[in-house]
Amino acid sequence: MFSHKLMESELAVAVNTEAHSQLVEIFRNDTSDLPDGERKLEPAHCVLTTQYLQVAERILNLTVYEDDVWIVTFPKCGTTWTQEMVWLIDHDLDYDTASKIDLTRRSVFMEIGWFFKAFPHDTIAAVENLPRPRHIKSHLPQALLPKQLWTVKPRIVYCARNPKDVAVSFMHHYRHLHGYNGPQETFLEALLAEQVLYCPQIKHVLDFWNIRHLDNILFIHYEDMKMQMTDVLKEVSNFFKKSYTDDQLKKLAEHLSFAVMKKNPSANNTLLLEELGKLTGKKIEFEFMRRGEAGCHKDELTPEYLERLRVYIDQQLQGTNFKYREVSSI
Ligand code: A3P
Q1: Alpha carbon of 194 to ligand 1 centroid (Å)
Q2: Which residue segment(s) compose the domain that 141 sits in?
Q3: Ligand 1 neighbourhood includes 210 CB (under 6 angstroms)
Q4: What is the spatial distance between Cα 202 and Cα 317, in angstroms, rounded to a whole number?
Q5: What separation, in Å, do the N-terminal and C-terminal C-alpha atoms of the chain show?
């Protein structure tokens, strides 16, 4: 089903870290089992690691249940935020359990154990053993996700974020969580050249945008959560066939606000950072909840890089009707 190519370019090697095995580009040419959308699907490819190759088929053939809830994103698009929101909405706002069980255990990141070398758990087995309804996080592109998603049709929430802010957020994330210690410019070059884990980024979004009309898909934007959370909460509640009062939604919005989530040890990824720190033997001095803003690229990226990113985004979006939310237009 899959073929792959080792990524041996100078840039791919420079940006990879000791936390992973070698980067590979995984290809899936036959995508005929994927759902139809507005756009004809092209053969799919994604940057992962040689370690991931061991489980690519296992993931593709994973058993999916109708009551599963999948949270799918490109990295740094507000996955954690979406996970906490979705878990609470799907669990009748059970703040008590949410405070007692870490989000990484309530909503399991399926493939993390297969690109971080020596990750202590088999995270695919953890997904298999989750009590139902299982909440599952993945950054995999559509074509690498379990095939049964398209026949069993559980709910999938997809969250997009403007790539300019993703670039900044991913850069900090790679440095602190993956141990990247090269220049910032090299990482940014590699991202533009699609030589970083999970690239290509824009095709990832377009493949889900393409099927947003399906009843089991909800497509949301990070910037909408930031600017009009109440509307997003209503949309997500409707998607889960839940009805909450204005007061309940207000309390939920407060719980999900950056300031509150940043201090919430059960949802701010403290446990994940501790686990990753143990892998490297170094305490990770980084707050996963970093800035939490729409538009942070403005003071963290140069105008030259932003212009190149703009050209790249425009080229990738040509011929589609998808638009990222722009801070200036919000
Ligand atoms: P920044 O690095 O720009 O601060 P992911 O969970 O996909 O890795 O995304 C992480 C990004 O989402 C980080 O962005 C993080 O700060 C932001 N984030 C997490 N929770 C948030 C919240 N409650 N409100 C706003 N942003 C949040």
Answers
A1: 22
A2: 2-329
A3: no
A4: 8
A5: 42
Tokens 């425009």 label which residue?
Answer: 314
Q: Kindly give the distance from the C-alpha atom of residue 292 to the centroid of ligand 1, in angstroms, as a whole number.
A: 5
pTM score of the predicted model: 0.97
CATH code of the domain containing 234:
3.40.50.300
Looking at the structure of the chain, the number of domains it has is: 1
Report how far ligand 1's centroid is from the alpha carbon of 166 (Å): 10
pLDDT tens across 44-66, in order?
A: 999 999 999 999 999 999 999 99
Residue 8 neighbours by CB distance under 10 Å: 10
d(CA 306, CA 308): 5
286 lines ligand 1 (CB under 6 A): no
Q: Is 186 exposed, middle or buried (0-12, 13-18, 19+ CB in 10 A)?
A: middle
Looking at ligand 1, which residue's alpha carbon is closest to its atom 23? Answer: 258
CA distance 269 to 311: 34
From CA 256, how far away is CA 252, in angstroms rounded? 6
Q: Measure 54 CA to ligand 1 centroid, in angstroms.
A: 30
Q: Residue with the nearest Cα to atom 18 of ligand 1?
A: 292
User: From the CB of residue 214, how many other CB atoms can be counted at a distance below 10 Å?
Assistant: 16
| 154-190 per-position pLDDT tens digit | 999 999 999 999 999 999 999 999 999 999 999 999 9
Number of H helices, E strands in the chain: 17, 8
Partnered with residue 109 across adjacent β-strands are 137
- Residue of 164, 110, 118, 105 lying closest to 140 (CA atoms): 110
